[in-house]
Specification:
alpha+beta; 12 helices; PGBD; 402 residues; sequence-specific DNA binding; 9-stranded mixed β-sheet
Length: 402
């Protein structure tokens, strides 16, 4: 992906021997001239080899950026203390593929010149340097069919420098960095992403609080059709959110915090924790099913997708017996555990082979994370296409139903 102009790129074309008499062996053509040659009716004018040669300017052209991304990809699984070591002559740190793809000085020039927006057009948006990148990825992801089961959660982009939007979340694998609100399928495909920027966050304000505004805003930006089912944790779930999702034709299921239950007549969590493992109590009210279940800790879930309470059997480890026991589990909690992990799955895949090249620019982690996220999305969709080729079914329909 490149945000640079095509006008400054020239092509160095090697023509067949039959044309070498009337044309020099190597000649520079513009992009338009190359397209004219390819569209020509004369079959003898087939180009045997095309290589893009950038102008000798201090601008980063499309071909250089493509090689740059390849170098970034390699550094995700071949890490070194400093990126200069990739071009070293020492066998233990050098990388032949990178050394043959681009010179070190050229790579440093691109790293110094790469940008997404004009620095003269500064706005109040804290993420103005990478805003076009997030918007472009979200627009591309919107073209994919929306799956039936969706999950909403936050992802973290690791960053230890100074920035007004840097967050600290205790207990997360990445505690320091930028927070990204994300809407994904249950299988991990990201449809919509929005960096958290306080009052500058570009999500609709519903008046229901931050959590409901994030869920409804992501659904609205992604164009989610009615009938889809959303799963979200206790950071987003409120009774007013479930009512609004019902009014819009969405399914909604999520865990709830104790302070969001208000006057719901359920046993207090501390008293309910003294009951046996697997015990549950529920309440059906205004089309919502509210369930409290005692597992390792007390869990409270609200859902508008089940009108009646039902249970299934699940297995839990018994410390006294040193064996697995079968305990009763509410069906809505089973469905929540099945479909909630899409955001965490995508985040795990992104961090598995994260680009290790660092920079002093505050927006570089966002830039490299966006590239990794796009590659993970492509890989997820490739898996579905390959599965469809094996089973002989419609790709888009399987992608929607999964």
């Amino acid at each position: 992906m490149s945000f640079l102009s095509h006008d400054v790129v020239q092509f160095l074309v090697r023509l067949p021997e039959s044309m070498a008499k009337t044309n020099p062996p190597k000649k520079r053509y513009t992009l338009a001239e190359v397209l004219d040659i390819l569209d020509a009716d004369n079959p003898s004018a087939i180009i045997s080899n095309i290589s893009v040669v950038p102008e000798p300017e201090n601008n980063a052209h499309d071909t250089d950026c493509d090689s740059d991304f390849s170098d970034d990809d390699v550094t995700s699984y071949n890490t070194v203390p400093r990126r200069r070591l990739l071009w070293s002559d020492d066998d233990d740190v050098s990388n032949i593929s990178i050394k043959e793809a681009m010179r070190r000085n050229r790579f440093n020039e691109i790293m110094a010149s790469i940008h997404v927006v004009d620095n003269m057009n500064i706005t109040a948006d804290p993420f103005f340097k990478v805003r076009p990148l997030f918007e472009e990825l979200s627009e591309v992801n919107k073209t994919m069919p929306i799956q039936k089961y969706l999950s909403v959660d936050e992802m973290m982009i690791e960053y230890f420098g100074r920035h007004g939007c840097k967050q600290f979340i205790r207990g997360k694998p990445i505690r320091f960095g930028y927070k990204i609100w994300s809407l994904t399928s249950s299988a991990g495909f990201v449809y919509q992403m929005e960096p958290y920027a306080g009052s500058h966050t570009r999500l609709v304000e519903t008046g229901l609080g931050q959590g409901p505004s994030v869920v409804l805003g992501l659904a609205e930006n992604a164009g989610v059709p009615p009938g889809c089912k959303f799963y979200h944790d206790n950071l987003f779930t409120t009774l007013s959110l479930v009512d609004e999702m019902t009014r819009r034709g969405y399914g909604s299921c999520g865990t709830m915090r104790e302070n969001q239950l208000f006057a719901v007549p359920l046993t207090p969590a501390k008293m309910f924790q003294k009951t046996s493992r697997g015990d549950a109590e529920y309440l059906v009210e205004d089309g919502k099913l509210i369930v409290r279940w005692n597992d390792n800790s007390v869990v409270t879930v609200v859902s508008n997708m089940e009108k009646e309470y039902s249970e299934v059997k699940t297995q839990r480890w018994n410390k006294q017996k040193h064996a697995m026991d079968k305990v009763k589990q509410p069906t809505c909690i089973k469905d929540y555990n099945t479909h909630m992990g899409g955001v965490d799955l995508h985040d795990q895949c992104v961090n598995r082979y994260r680009i290790s090249i660092r920079s002093k620019k505050w927006w570089w982690p966002c830039y490299s994370w966006a590239l990794n996220s796009a590659m993970v999305n492509s890989w997820f969709y490739y898996r579905y296409m390959k599965l469809c080729a094996i089973e002989g079914c419609d790709a888009h329909m399987l992608f929607i139903l999964t």
